[in-house]
Specification:
- It comes from Oceanodroma tethys.
- The chain is mainly alpha-helical.
- The protein has one domain (2-165): P-loop containing nucleotide triphosphate hydrolases (Rossmann fold, 3-Layer(aba) Sandwich).
- The protein is built from eleven helices and two strands.
- It has a two-stranded parallel sheet with strand order 1-2.
- Helix 10 (138-152) runs antiparallel to helix 11 (156-167).
Protein backbone atom coordinates (compact mmCIF):
# COMPACT_ATOMS: atom_id res chain seq x y z
CA UNK A 1 0.00 0.00 0.00
CA UNK A 2 1.34 3.39 -0.93
CA UNK A 3 0.15 6.03 1.53
CA UNK A 4 0.50 9.60 0.31
CA UNK A 5 0.14 12.21 3.06
CA UNK A 6 0.29 15.98 2.94
CA UNK A 7 0.68 19.00 5.20
CA UNK A 8 -2.73 19.36 6.91
CA UNK A 9 -2.71 23.12 6.27
CA UNK A 10 -2.39 22.57 2.53
CA UNK A 11 -4.98 19.79 2.75
CA UNK A 12 -7.43 22.24 4.31
CA UNK A 13 -6.63 24.88 1.69
CA UNK A 14 -7.09 22.42 -1.14
CA UNK A 15 -10.35 21.05 0.30
CA UNK A 16 -11.67 24.59 0.68
CA UNK A 17 -11.23 25.32 -3.00
CA UNK A 18 -12.41 21.84 -4.01
CA UNK A 19 -15.57 22.08 -1.90
CA UNK A 20 -16.49 25.45 -3.32
CA UNK A 21 -16.01 24.16 -6.87
CA UNK A 22 -18.10 20.99 -6.42
CA UNK A 23 -21.83 21.65 -6.25
CA UNK A 24 -22.71 18.36 -4.48
CA UNK A 25 -20.42 19.31 -1.59
CA UNK A 26 -21.13 22.02 0.94
CA UNK A 27 -19.71 25.37 -0.10
CA UNK A 28 -18.45 28.02 2.26
CA UNK A 29 -18.92 31.76 1.98
CA UNK A 30 -15.60 32.47 3.65
CA UNK A 31 -12.36 30.74 4.47
CA UNK A 32 -13.12 31.39 8.15
CA UNK A 33 -16.39 29.42 7.87
CA UNK A 34 -14.57 26.55 6.22
CA UNK A 35 -11.77 26.58 8.78
CA UNK A 36 -14.25 26.24 11.65
CA UNK A 37 -15.94 23.30 9.90
CA UNK A 38 -12.58 21.66 9.16
CA UNK A 39 -11.35 22.00 12.72
CA UNK A 40 -14.64 20.83 14.29
CA UNK A 41 -14.79 17.67 12.14
CA UNK A 42 -17.77 18.79 10.06
CA UNK A 43 -16.33 17.70 6.71
CA UNK A 44 -18.26 15.26 4.51
CA UNK A 45 -15.08 13.17 4.13
CA UNK A 46 -14.19 13.14 7.82
CA UNK A 47 -11.36 14.54 9.89
CA UNK A 48 -7.89 14.56 8.30
CA UNK A 49 -6.18 14.22 11.68
CA UNK A 50 -8.27 11.15 12.52
CA UNK A 51 -7.44 9.73 9.09
CA UNK A 52 -3.72 10.16 9.78
CA UNK A 53 -4.12 8.71 13.28
CA UNK A 54 -5.78 5.60 11.89
CA UNK A 55 -3.09 5.13 9.25
CA UNK A 56 -0.38 5.62 11.85
CA UNK A 57 -1.27 2.17 13.20
CA UNK A 58 0.10 0.72 9.95
CA UNK A 59 3.11 3.02 9.51
CA UNK A 60 5.59 0.30 10.47
CA UNK A 61 3.96 -2.42 8.39
CA UNK A 62 6.38 -3.72 5.74
CA UNK A 63 3.55 -3.67 3.20
CA UNK A 64 2.94 0.06 3.67
CA UNK A 65 5.13 2.79 2.21
CA UNK A 66 4.45 6.33 3.36
CA UNK A 67 5.56 9.27 1.28
CA UNK A 68 4.66 12.91 1.57
CA UNK A 69 3.40 15.16 -1.18
CA UNK A 70 6.18 17.53 -0.21
CA UNK A 71 8.83 14.82 -0.80
CA UNK A 72 7.45 14.16 -4.26
CA UNK A 73 7.41 17.85 -5.12
CA UNK A 74 10.97 18.36 -3.84
CA UNK A 75 12.54 15.43 -5.71
CA UNK A 76 10.09 13.64 -8.01
CA UNK A 77 12.66 11.29 -9.58
CA UNK A 78 13.84 10.08 -6.17
CA UNK A 79 10.21 9.66 -5.10
CA UNK A 80 9.42 7.54 -8.17
CA UNK A 81 12.61 5.54 -7.62
CA UNK A 82 11.65 4.79 -4.00
CA UNK A 83 8.08 3.87 -4.97
CA UNK A 84 9.30 1.60 -7.78
CA UNK A 85 11.74 -0.11 -5.40
CA UNK A 86 8.97 -0.61 -2.83
CA UNK A 87 6.81 -2.35 -5.43
CA UNK A 88 9.76 -4.33 -6.82
CA UNK A 89 9.75 -2.58 -10.18
CA UNK A 90 13.08 -2.05 -11.88
CA UNK A 91 13.29 1.16 -13.92
CA UNK A 92 16.16 2.70 -15.82
CA UNK A 93 17.15 6.31 -15.11
CA UNK A 94 15.40 7.31 -18.34
CA UNK A 95 12.22 5.50 -17.31
CA UNK A 96 12.34 7.06 -13.83
CA UNK A 97 12.60 10.52 -15.37
CA UNK A 98 9.78 9.75 -17.81
CA UNK A 99 7.45 8.61 -15.03
CA UNK A 100 8.36 11.66 -12.92
CA UNK A 101 7.72 13.99 -15.86
CA UNK A 102 4.42 12.39 -16.89
CA UNK A 103 3.12 12.23 -13.32
CA UNK A 104 4.04 15.79 -12.40
CA UNK A 105 1.20 18.01 -11.33
CA UNK A 106 1.83 20.32 -14.29
CA UNK A 107 1.66 17.43 -16.76
CA UNK A 108 -1.50 16.02 -15.21
CA UNK A 109 -3.11 19.47 -15.15
CA UNK A 110 -2.20 20.03 -18.79
CA UNK A 111 -3.87 16.72 -19.75
CA UNK A 112 -6.76 16.99 -17.30
CA UNK A 113 -9.38 17.87 -19.90
CA UNK A 114 -8.52 14.66 -21.78
CA UNK A 115 -8.30 12.49 -18.69
CA UNK A 116 -11.06 13.96 -16.50
CA UNK A 117 -13.16 16.19 -18.76
CA UNK A 118 -14.63 19.32 -17.18
CA UNK A 119 -13.86 17.84 -13.75
CA UNK A 120 -10.14 18.24 -14.52
CA UNK A 121 -10.09 21.94 -13.72
CA UNK A 122 -11.60 21.18 -10.29
CA UNK A 123 -9.11 18.42 -9.47
CA UNK A 124 -6.00 20.20 -10.69
CA UNK A 125 -5.94 23.73 -9.32
CA UNK A 126 -2.40 24.71 -8.23
CA UNK A 127 -0.60 21.67 -6.86
CA UNK A 128 1.82 23.79 -4.88
CA UNK A 129 3.20 23.71 -1.40
CA UNK A 130 2.46 26.29 1.31
CA UNK A 131 -0.56 27.85 -0.40
CA UNK A 132 -2.11 27.82 3.08
CA UNK A 133 -0.08 30.95 3.84
CA UNK A 134 -2.46 32.86 1.55
CA UNK A 135 -5.50 31.97 3.70
CA UNK A 136 -4.54 31.20 7.29
CA UNK A 137 -4.56 33.91 9.92
CA UNK A 138 -1.94 33.74 12.67
CA UNK A 139 -4.59 32.44 15.07
CA UNK A 140 -5.70 29.73 12.61
CA UNK A 141 -2.09 28.71 12.07
CA UNK A 142 -1.62 28.31 15.83
CA UNK A 143 -4.87 26.34 16.17
CA UNK A 144 -3.85 23.99 13.36
CA UNK A 145 -0.40 23.48 14.90
CA UNK A 146 -2.01 22.68 18.26
CA UNK A 147 -4.44 20.19 16.68
CA UNK A 148 -1.56 18.58 14.78
CA UNK A 149 0.41 18.11 18.00
CA UNK A 150 -2.61 16.77 19.90
CA UNK A 151 -3.57 14.22 17.23
CA UNK A 152 -0.37 13.07 15.56
CA UNK A 153 2.55 15.17 16.78
CA UNK A 154 4.56 12.35 18.37
CA UNK A 155 3.56 9.61 15.94
CA UNK A 156 5.61 8.24 13.07
CA UNK A 157 3.42 9.95 10.45
CA UNK A 158 3.35 13.16 12.45
CA UNK A 159 7.14 13.17 12.74
CA UNK A 160 7.49 12.52 8.99
CA UNK A 161 5.10 15.34 8.10
CA UNK A 162 6.67 17.72 10.59
CA UNK A 163 10.13 17.07 9.13
CA UNK A 164 9.00 17.50 5.53
CA UNK A 165 6.88 20.57 6.19
CA UNK A 166 8.67 22.46 8.93
CA UNK A 167 12.30 21.40 8.75
CA UNK A 168 12.68 21.45 4.97
CA UNK A 169 10.43 24.42 4.18
Amino acid sequence: ILLLIRNPKDVATSFYHFSNAMSPLPSYETWDDFFVAFMTKKMPWGCYFEYLSKWNKYADDENVMTITYEELKENPVLGVKNIAAFFGISLSEKELQSVADRSSFQSMKKNSQKTHGAFGSVLFRKGGISDWKNLFSEDQNEKMDKAFEEHIGGTKLGTKLKYEVYCKA
